[in-house]
Amino acid sequence: MKKNTTVHEDDSAVNNNFSTTVGALILSLVFLLGVPGNFFIVWSILARIKRRSVTTLLILNLAFADGFIMVLTIFFIIYLAKKKWIFGVAMCKGLFYLCNTNMYASIFLITLMSVHRMVAVLFPQKLSYLVTRKIVRRVIGGMWMLVMVIAIPSLVFRNVIEVSDDETNQKKLVCESNHTQARHVRFQYSLETVSGFILPYAVIITCYVLILKRLRQTKFRRHVRSEKLILAIVVMFGLFWLPYHVINMVEVAAAWYPEDSSTRELLELVHSSCRAVTSALAFISSCANPVLYTFAGKSYIKKNGFAFMAKLFEGTSSEQTENKKSRLMVKNGIRSNDSNNSLPTREQTATPEVS
């Protein structure tokens, strides 16, 4: 694989000392919190929950994806600390490909959670027909195949290149995007932002607008714990990934200007100075979910100890049974006084659960 020797250090994402230092510190914190946190969730679900609901399956996949990518942050910490790439071309391409795959998987799983909540609130009596564990497993499998395909540009346009080090006046290797044409820049980063942020969030916002509209029409207007938890996951993901996608759009904008344009130089300076920090911030979203779950299940910690996470999720195992009961009640003409204007009975209880 040929390496480009004409790139100057100022064009590299690891050229800024402050940015790389802050990025390395953020990733170190993410590694310490994210690895044990996400794998604790995986263990809690696999070892302690026999009947897994739709949302539990989605959370299991989300925790697995986040936990796996957290393990890989050690390579990026070393990269930012040393400000040069020492792991070779294959690792350069593979690690960034896995990062993009995780980005798409996380937002798509969160989108699926939001769609499921919308169906549960708007069509509670039809939920068992529309959303079954078998269908969800197929959808999740298809989603993983999709994210592996749409993340391919990060594999194609990433390479190890040589840059000139201003401090030592020598060459060093960095793992950077290596676009030969401006249209490749516009294609890759526009694809990331549109398919990995704008479109999923449009679906999520639509789902929650419909959910809130339905809640306002019901007699029981209190937001249940599961609604708040999933909404918190959505907000957290958006806050930490937004700066990354803003920098993507800065790079896309720079690609529209001629190479000798002062505007392009300014935009590329902003991009190269901020990329390390915004990428590190994006990783925080992968370690934030265990913290959210801990706060949501804090009432169980004293009573259940390390089993509190399973206790938080175990209420979802009754989801299918209760939906079948609701369906039978409707079929037999049996309705509670509030069944026409309220959420399902399970969601009127005070028991904290994710469903």
TrEMBL record:
Keyword Transmembrane helix carried by entry: yes
Record's protein name: Leukotriene B4 receptor 2b
Gene that specifies this protein: ltb4r2b
Organism: Oryzias latipes
Similarity comment text for this entry: Belongs to the chemokine-like receptor (CMKLR) family.
Keyword terms, alphabetized: Cell membrane, Disulfide bond, G-protein coupled receptor, Glycoprotein, Membrane, Phosphoprotein, Receptor, Transducer, Transmembrane, Transmembrane helix
Keyword tRNA-binding: no
Major localisation: membrane
InterPro entries xref list: ATII_rcpt, Formyl_rcpt-rel, GPCR_Rhodpsn, GPCR_Rhodpsn_7TM
Residue ranges with Polar residues bias: 334-355
Gene Ontology process terms (BP): neuropeptide signaling pathway
Lineage top rank: taxon: Eukaryota
UniProt region (Disordered), positions on chain: 323-355
UniProt topology in membrane: Multi-pass membrane protein
Any one GO CC term of the record: cell surface
Membrane-spanning segments: 20-46, 58-81, 101-123, 135-157, 193-211, 231-257, 277-296
PROSITE patterns named among the record's database cross-references: G_PROTEIN_RECEP_F1_2
GO molecular function: G protein-coupled peptide receptor activity; leukotriene receptor activity
G-protein coupled receptors family 1 profile domain mapped to chain residues: 37-293
Localization per record: Cell membrane
